[in-house]
Every structure is written in C-alpha cells, then in structure tokens.
Amino acid sequence: MIERYNWTAQDEFVEHQLDDLGYDTDSFNFQLTDWLIGITQNVPIGSLN
Fold this sequence. Notes:
- This protein is an all-alpha fold.
- The chain has helices at 2-21, 25-42.
- Helix 1 runs antiparallel to helix 2.
C-alpha cells in the first residue's frame, strides 16, 4: 500500500512541480503538504471500505 501511495504522490504532484521546484524547497514542501492534506481528505481509501 505504501508503494502505491508513493507512486500516486510522485505521479500526480511531484512530476508536475519539478519545473517550479528550482531551489525554493520551502515553497515546494508547503505545496506538497497542502496536496497531501487535500488528497487524504478527499480520496476514499479502498481498503478501509
């Protein structure tokens, strides 16, 4: 399950933010945190249903 979660984060967020990352890791981390909070609140976890 962890591998799937990591793949989803990489595919849906990180790949799209690489150009904007540059050297501003604080901004990247803030955006990633917002994305992670949003994805965990809005996407049901299939194994818990």
